[in-house]
Amino acid sequence: MKLDLTIFLSAFIGAQAVLGTPIRSRTPYSIKETHNVPRKWKNLGRAAGNHKLHLQIGLKQEKFDELDLHLYEVSDPNHSRYGNHLSFEDVNELVKPAEETLDLVHEWLLTNGVRELAYSPAKDWINIYIDVESAEKLLDTEYSVFQHEDGSALVRTSHWSLPAHLHEHIDTVQPTTSFMRSAPQKADYIQFDQPWTPPGYKPPTNETIAKVCRLFTVTIECFRTLYGTIDYQQKVPGINKIAFNNYIGQRPIRPDVFSFLQKYRPEAAPNAYTFQSIEIDDGPAAQDTPLTVEQAAGDDISKEANLDAQTILGMTYPQPVYSYSTGGSPPFIADINTPENTNEPYLTWVNYVMGQKDVPQVISSSYGDDEQTVPKSYADRVCKQFAQLGARGISLLVSSGDGGLGGEDSSGCLTNDGKNTTTFIPSFPPSCPYVTAVGATQEFEPEVAAFRAPGLGPDNKTHGFYASGSGFSNYFDRPSYQDGVVPAYISALGGLYEGLYNKNGRSYPDIAAQGLYFAFWWNGTESSISGTSASCPLTSSIISLVNDDLISRGKPPLGFLNPWLYSKGYKGFTDILSGNTSSCGTGGFPVTKGWDPITGFGTPNFPELLKLARH
Ligand SMILES: *[C@@H]1O[C@H](CO)[C@@H](O)[C@H](O)[C@H]1NC(C)=O
Ligand SMILES: *[C@@H]1O[C@H](CO)[C@@H](O)[C@H](O)[C@H]1NC(C)=O
Ligand SMILES: *[C@@H]1O[C@H](CO)[C@@H](O)[C@H](O)[C@H]1NC(C)=O
Ligand SMILES: *[C@@H]1O[C@H](CO)[C@@H](O)[C@H](O)[C@H]1NC(C)=O
Ligand SMILES: *[C@@H]1O[C@H](CO)[C@@H](O)[C@H](O)[C@H]1NC(C)=O
Ligand SMILES: *[C@@H]1O[C@H](CO)[C@@H](O)[C@H](O)[C@H]1NC(C)=O
User: Fold this and answer.
1) Residue 594, marked binder
2) SS3 for 279?
3) Would the N or C end of the chain have less CB density within 10 A of its end CB?
4) Tens of pLDDT along 540-578?
């Protein structure tokens, strides 16, 4: 296992730190957390005792509430501290655990024979590497191998315990009960020979748009024209940076990225071989060679990563682009009893990035899963890590999901509490109030919410259901920045879908952009791909260009977008007024004038965004 030295600063420190501490009375174990195994997973039996786990122990952060206050002050354009982002050191000071917490947890680990451990820079996370047998003793639990319908497997448990006196000091321990798989939010892949126009399609009447925008496929030139970035000259590339995330074995294939850029943004093509690939916890590097026939047959290790790389490099040239690849959760495994690496990649990534002093100002992440696949404590803690990024002035954008309200028909829209009650299924991380969630649109005049019923695609093959992800969190309350729009939207619904969603929850998405039939390159061939996975890197790119302008004027970057977006920035988005979001066996929430939980405030208008951001 490759350790990153800036995170794992001080292995062995624990043993020393504990010596001076008096041994406290031990308390009996009691269950700290129970989480039902989500639907689609089945228990294949006990995990092997010698299977290795990288256990991440989240200690209670002493002053998170204070961090939250700072975050909102520095992100609110009406506050005198707007833009005064916190430093790496400031954030660490606010999230470090109390001395007592550290002492008690050290003592517990030491008495259980754990002698090697490593901390995050703020010491709010402890990392240990142990086998399943030892973890079972430490957490008084039993780990099993669980297999998803799609064949992938994880080593997890449905409950775990702690000595009673530690319950208030530890927020979460993972991997235990989280079944989150960070699936890419890409809906579709279509190979084609010819650009295609569906029967009855009316091209835009605006000639500028009609010249560059086709329904199938949509190109970088179309996005740059439609959203108005095409004439923008970047001023501080290199000071301004952008990154994207890869999980579950995803890796960009440089020759595909090169071919795409050569056709759609030729000046950017050389960067296909130079953008930086950062590997975390044995994540795979961006690949310099074409996919092998074997890799291509495995199908899914590079489509999402290629999409992110192609969109961002195409939109933000000449800006430096960073690709984070985090290891963990291989999609398929040979032997069910010995999964290779079943760590919790989301947490691994966020802890890695929190350990870096220099982080790109915008990060695009197109992965998520049903909120109910993660225990609340885990979602809470990961969401708080995102708040820390925001406090440091980093904008994290995530895709809103491709299943509308939770899936095509009602059979997928059921609770995970054992009762199988019909409900809408929100998605995490878009449900976290500290991220900016991006939905998808299609067509041009006007743009409408992205939706495609299952059926024949332009390649004459059958394709699945796709609707831009939409919803209300069951875990996170509505943040105050949404108070101005969400209650009004709900009240206008007049009771529609009452009981199927949490009226008091954080609602998403916040904004949207094109997300159907992107021009795309994969396996040496031109093709097309769709999803909020596409709209997220596109929107992230545009936000990054706004940052370029701000930074060149000596102003801070936008940072955590939402307080600005909901009070001021929304004026720089084109409202989406129609579209179909049928899902969970319903017609979906209506797309309306103003904010709505399908396309948020709408799609970016770059020249307007520049004006709004400058003042
Ligand atoms: C922010 O300040 C402006 C001008 O001072 C004011 O018009 C606006 O209502 C304020 N917005 C909020 C959300 O407080
Ligand atoms: C056509 O679209 C372009 C690009 O968005 C815009 O600048 C122009 O104003 C539009 N023209 C008309 C007549 O609406
Ligand atoms: C990938 O490309 C190779 C070489 O052109 C081809 O033989 C193979 O069939 C392709 N695989 C897929 C899954 O498209
Ligand atoms: C709920 O659904 C699961 C999985 O489909 C099934 O095993 C279980 O029996 C159902 N429970 C109830 C109460 O219907
Ligand atoms: C799809 O099938 C229809 C009817 O068979 C045919 O007219 C059309 O050319 C086909 N399109 C493609 C892209 O193969
Ligand atoms: C949404 O679109 C599908 C297929 O195009 C159609 O069957 C359905 O009636 C539409 N629903 C609404 C509410 O418009």
Assistant:
1) yes
2) strand
3) C
4) 999 999 999 999 999 999 999 999 999 999 999 999 999
Measured distance CA(528)–CA(469) in Å, rounded: 20
Q: Is the pLDDT of residue 410 over 90?
A: no
Among 76, 308, 370, 526, the active-site one is 308
Cβ neighbour number for residue 296 with a 10 Å cutoff:
16
Residue 609: count of CB within 10 angstroms of its CB: 23
User: Can you tell me whether residue 31 is helix, strand or coil?
Assistant: strand
Six-digit token pair at 123? Answer: 């010491």
CA–CA gap between residue 174 and residue 196 (Å, rounded): 47
Residue spans of beta strands (DSSP E) within 25-88: 29-34, 41-46, 52-59
To test the ligand 3 pocket, which listed residue (523, 526, 529) has its Cβ within 8 A of the most ligand atoms?
Answer: 523
Of 530, 500, 305, 304, the C-alpha closest to 405 is: 500
Residue type, 145: V
* Residue 529 in marked binding region: no
Inter-residue contact 570 to 593 (CB < 8 Å): no
Domains of the chain: 29-61+96-174 (no CATH), 190-333+346-614 (3.40.50.200)
Distances (CA, A) of 523 to 291, 296, 353, 482: 6, 7, 30, 43
CA angle 442, 445, 449 (to 5 degrees): 30
CA 453 to centroid of ligand 5, rounded, Å: 19
Nearest to 443 by CA among 200, 605, 204, 220: 204
Let me know: does 317 contact 271? Beta carbons within 8 Å: yes
> Which residue bears the tokens 């290891």?
327
Is the confidence at residue 25, as pLDDT, over 60?
Answer: no
Q: What is the mean pLDDT of residues 373-389?
A: 94
- DSSP tag of 267: G
pLDDT at 185: 78
Alpha carbon separation from 368 to 41, 148, 412, 432, 543 (Å, rounded): 17, 16, 16, 11, 21
The pick from 413, 420, 422 for probing ligand 4's pocket by mutation, whose C-beta has the most ligand atoms within 8 angstroms, reads: 420
The angle that helices 376-391 and 88-95 make with each other, rounded to 10 degrees, is 150
Alpha-carbon gap, residue 468 to 599, rounded angstroms: 8
Closest-approaching ligand to the CA atom of 598: 6
Is the CB–ligand 2 distance for residue 225 below 6 Å? Answer: yes
